[in-house]
Amino acid sequence: MAISLQPAGQTTSYTGRGNVGGVKRVGFGESRPQPQWVNVLVDYGGQPAAYTYEVPADLAVQVGDILTVPFRHQSIGAIALSLSSTPPANLVPHQIRAVEGIVEQRFFAPPYWALLQRVADYYQVSLMQVLKTALPPGVLARSQRRLRLRRDRLPQPQPNSLTPGLKDLLEDLQRSPTGDYTWPYLQKRGHSYRTLQQLIQLGWAESYLSPPQPPQAKRRQAVTLVSGDTLPPDLTPRQQEIIATLRRQGGDLWLSDALQLCQTTSPTLKRLAQSGCLVIEPREQLRAETGPTLMPDLPKPLTHYQAQVLDPISKSQQGSQFLLHGVTGSGKTEVYLQTIAPRLAAGQSALVLVPEIGLTPQLTDRFRRRFGDQVWVYHSGLSDGERYDTWRQSLKPSKPLVIVGTRSAIFMPLPNLGLIILDEEHDSSYKQDVPPCYHARTVARWRAELENCPLVLGSATPSLDTWVQCRGLGSSILDLSPQLDPNTPTLTPSPPTPSLPTPLPWTYLSLPERVQAQPLPEVNVIDMRDELQDGNRSILSRSLQTALAQMKAEGNQGLLFIHRRGHSSFVSCRSCGHVMMCPHCDVSLSYHQPGANSAMTLRCHYCNFSQSHPKHCPACSSPYLKHFGSGTQRVVNALAETFPELSCIRFDSDTTRTKGAHRALLTRFAEGGADLLVGTQMLTKGIDLPQVTLVGIIAADGLLYMNDYWASERALQMLIQVAGRAGRGTQPGQVFLQTYTPDHPVVEAVTGHAYEGFIAAEWAQRQLLQYPPAGQMVLLRLSSTDPDAVEKTAETLAQQVTQLLEGSSYELLGPAPAPIPRVARRYRWHLVVKGPMDEPLPNLQDLKRHCPAQVSLTIDVDPLNLA
User: Fold this and answer.
1) How far apart are CA 139 and CA 385, in angstroms?
2) What spatial distance separates the first Cα and last Cα of the chain, rounded to whole Å?
3) Greater model confidence, 283 or 544
4) Rounded to 5 degrees, what are φ and ψ at 693?
5) Three-state secondary structure along 120-187?
6) Which distant-in-sequence residues (6+ apart) come within 8 Å of 83 by Cβ?
7) What angle is formed at CA 132 by the lines to CA 128 and CA 137, rounded to 5 degrees?
8) What residues have CB less than 8 Å from 165, skipping those under 6 apart?
9) Is the pLDDT at 461 greater than 70, yes or no?
10) Where are the beta strands (DSSP E) in 576-721?
11) How far apart are CA 189 and CA 185, in angstroms?
12) CA 776 → CA 215, 499, 819, 837, distances in Å?
C-alpha cells in the first residue's frame, strides 16, 4: 500500500520554473481538469517499495519516466509506475509531497510497461514484484542522482549578491573538469539541500539521474604497443623478442594474456612501458559469458520442408503466432537462424528462449558462429555483473542483438524487438513456481502482441495447451476426428476459437522428416518383468547390455536416461520397515554414493539436508538397511561393475552445480571423452550429438505414474525427446525403453512416434474433467512453521473463496494438506479454484489480508506443479 512520505509538521511544494533535467514543463497557461497522482518505485535502504506523490500542474509525468522525488531529508530517483486521478483513500491529499522533476522520459518503452502491468494483473501480484523479477539484481540501487553545472548559463561576472553557500557550491562544481557531482558527495561536502535547489532554480545547474551503471565497472589492465617499426637501440634481445610476440598478436592484449604468451613478468613489461614501447593502462571489460573461440559458419542449404516453414515466418511483419512442430533432428535450429538473419539486417533484435541453462551453451555456440558478437546470453547461472551488463546492452543497444536466455529473458528491454522464439515450448521449466508465478510462453504471447512481432513456438512434442489453441479445437470431442497427415507440409492457418480466445492469429508449421531424410530411431520396449523371471536382477536389461557392448565395439556413443538423480530414491530397514526420512520435510532421504569407494550419504532433494548413512536402523538397531529405487549414481555404479571398459559422464543437477559445468561436460563428451552420458531430464533438452547411436531409458515407470493429471503428457514429451537424441548423424539410432508396464498408452505412443493420436485422446479426457486447457485453475499455496495456524488459515480462506465464487461457474477443491505436507520445516496446505475457460478468473488478491503474519500465501495461476 502506498503511503505518504511527508514528515510530521512539514509541508513541501515545488515552485521551480524552467527546465528540470532537460525536460520541458507544461506551460502555466495550461490546466488539468483535476490533480494527478503518481505511484513510483523508489529503492531506499535496499528494499524497493512503492509510494504516492503529487504531480505538479506544470509537469507532464508519464508511466516509465525516471523522476526525482523528495524522500525523508533528501532527493532520490524513482520510476513512475502508474498514474491516478484520485489519491489513495487512506492519505490526506495536502500532506502528500510533490514530484520535483523529470530526469528522463520513457526510460522503458510504453509496451514494456503495459507488459509488466498485464503480468501483474493476470498472475495476481503487485507490479512491484513483477518489476523486481524483470530487472537484474541491483539495477535500481545503481542509479545515481547527479548535479551538473551549466557553464553556458553562468553570468559573467557573477553577482555580488550570492550567498556564501551558493558561492562555495559554484566553486566546487567549477573545480571539477566535468562540473558534475553526485548529490550525496556534494551534501557530504557540507552543501545543503536548499542550496542545491537554489542553484537549479537559477538555471545555473541541472539535476539528473544517471542511467543505471555498475557501481564499479569491471576493469582489467591492458597492454598496447605504441612503438612503430623502429625500436629504441638499447633494448635487450629478450625485450625485442617480447615486442615481436606482442606485434604478432595484434599489439593489443590484456596484461594477463600478454604475460602468459610472452612468458615474462610485470616488471619487464613496465620497463618497456617506461621506454615508450608500450602502454599499460586499465580498460573496462564488459562481463559476458566466456566461451570457446568459434569459427563462423554460413547458412546451410534447407530441406524442402525447412524452406516451406521458413517462408511464412520471414514474410510476417506483424504480430502472429507460429507453432513449428518438427520431429527431433528435423532442423528447427537452422530455421531459427535463417529467420533471425533478415531481422538483424533490418535493424531489429531477436529474443530466443530455451527451457534450461544446460541447453544454452550448445545453442549459443551455433548462434555465435552465425551472428558473432551480436549474441548475448542471459540466465540465472551468470554472475550478477554478467547479467547486469547483458541487460545494459539490451536497454540501448548500438546494434541489433540476439538475446539467448531462459524464462527471465522474456523481460529483456530490447527496444526494437522483431522476433521472439521459444524453443522446446512444451517444457515446464518456462513456468515459475514462486511469485510472480508467470509462464514465459504466456508472457511471450502478450509481448508479441504489444510489440507487434512474430512469435515462433518450436517443439517436437507441443504442449496440449499450444496444440489446442493452434489447431482451433473447440469444446466438442468430435472436433478431433480429422488427423493430420505427417507427410503433408503444412501451412494451416486457423482462426482463434470463442472458447479459447487468443489475440494473435495462429499458423501451424510442420517438419515431419529429419534432415537428410534420416529415419527416426527404432524404439525397443523391454519388459522388465520378463528380465526378473529369467533371473536378471540388474537394472540393465540383457538387450541393453548387448547393445552397449556392440556400441563400444563400433566406437559409437550413447545416452542413458533416468528421471532421478542420486543413487536410490529411499533407504529402509528390512527388519522393521523403517524408512529414513528428512527431519525437515515429509519426504524420504535419497541415497547418494558418487563412486564405489565413496562415502555413503543421505540427502533431501527438497531442502538439501544431508547426513551420513547410519550403520544400524535408528528404530530397531538392525544392520539390514537397504536402498531401493534407481538414480544416476546407481546407473553409473552398475555400469562400472558390468562394463568396466565403458567410461561414463554423469549429467544431472548434482554434477552441473558449478558455473560452466554444463558446457564443460557436454564438450568433453562431444570430443570423445566418454562412451556414455548418464543423466536426468537435462538430456531431453534439445542436445544435438550426431555421434550418439544408442539411447537407453532406465525405469520409465517412474515417469508414468506421477500424481498429477498431466503426468501422461509430460511422460510422453520427455520420452519422445530423449529417444530423439539417437541417430541424428549418419548412422541409424536405436532406443531401449525399460518398463514394467509395456502396454501403457504412453509407451505405445513412444514406440510408434505417434504424438498426435495420443494427444487427441488426452484432450478428450481433459475436456471430460474440465482440466486445463479445457478449463482454468488457480492453486492457493499456504505455508507456515505453525501447523495449527496454517490449517486454520486454510479453513478461513476456504470460507472466503466460497463466498467469492457464489453465482459463478468456478468451484473450490479443498482445503487439504499438500501432497508433501512439510518442506523445510514449513507445513503446507492447498486450495484449488477450478472453472471454465470462457469466464474470467476471480480476483483472489484480497485473500492475503486474511492471512496472519506467520502464514504465507502464494497465488499460482495456471499451476504446473501441485506437489
Assistant:
1) 10
2) 32
3) 544
4) -115, -10
5) HHHCCCCHHHHHHHHCCCCCHHHCEEEEEECHHHCCCCCCCCCCHHHHHHHHHHHHCCCCEEEHHHHH
6) 36, 37, 38, 39, 55, 61, 62, 63
7) 155
8) 191, 192, 195
9) yes
10) 590-592, 601-603, 610-612, 625-628, 648-651, 676-679, 692-697
11) 6
12) 45, 12, 21, 6
Model confidence over 197-236: pLDDT tens digits? 888 888 888 887 665 443 345 677 888 887 776 778 888 8
Output phi, psi for 760, to 5 deg: -65, -45
Confidence of residue 459 (pLDDT cuts 50, 70, 90): very high
pLDDT at 38: 92
pTM, entire model: 0.72
What distance in Å separates the CA atoms of residue 153 and residue 169, rounded to the nearest whole number?
Answer: 16
| Residues in Cβ contact with 612 at an 8 Å cutoff, skipping those fewer than 6 apart | 599, 600, 601, 602
Residue whose C-alpha is closest to residue 860's, from 166, 175, 122, 111:
122
Q: CB–CB of 305/512 below 8 Å?
A: yes
For a pLDDT cut of 70, what percent of the chain falls above it? 83
pLDDT per position as a tens digit, 474-525:
433 323 322 333 333 333 333 333 333 346 899 999 999 888 778 888 899 9
Q: Using CA atoms, how far apart are residues 327 and 510, in angstroms rounded to an integer?
A: 8
Element (H, E) at 685: none
Within 10 A of 653 (CB to CB), how many other CB atoms are there? 15
Looking at per-residue pLDDT, the higher value among 115 and 754 belongs to: 115
H-assigned helices in 346-463: 360-371, 384-395, 440-451
- 797 vs 592 pLDDT, higher one: 797
The confidence score (pLDDT) of residue 524 equals 92
Per the listing, cell 542522482 goes with 145
Residues 6 or more apart whose CB falls under 8 angstroms from that of 378 comprise 387, 390, 391, 394, 403, 404, 405, 406, 408, 409, 412
Crossing angle of helices 711-723 and 755-769, in 10° steps, is 170
Q: Could you report the per-residue pLDDT of 825-859, keeping only the tens digit for each?
A: 889 999 999 999 888 888 999 999 999 989 999 99
Q: Is the dihedral of CA 570, 571, 577, 580 positive or negative?
A: negative
At residue 610, φ and ψ (nearest 5 deg) are -140, 155
Q: Tell me how far apart the alpha carbons of residues 801 and 513 are, in angstroms, rounded to a whole number.
A: 50
What is residue 492's predicted lDDT score, i.e. its pLDDT?
37
Cis peptide leading into residue 157 (ω within 30°): yes
Q: In what order do the strands lie in the sheet with 610-612?
A: 590-592, 601-603, 610-612
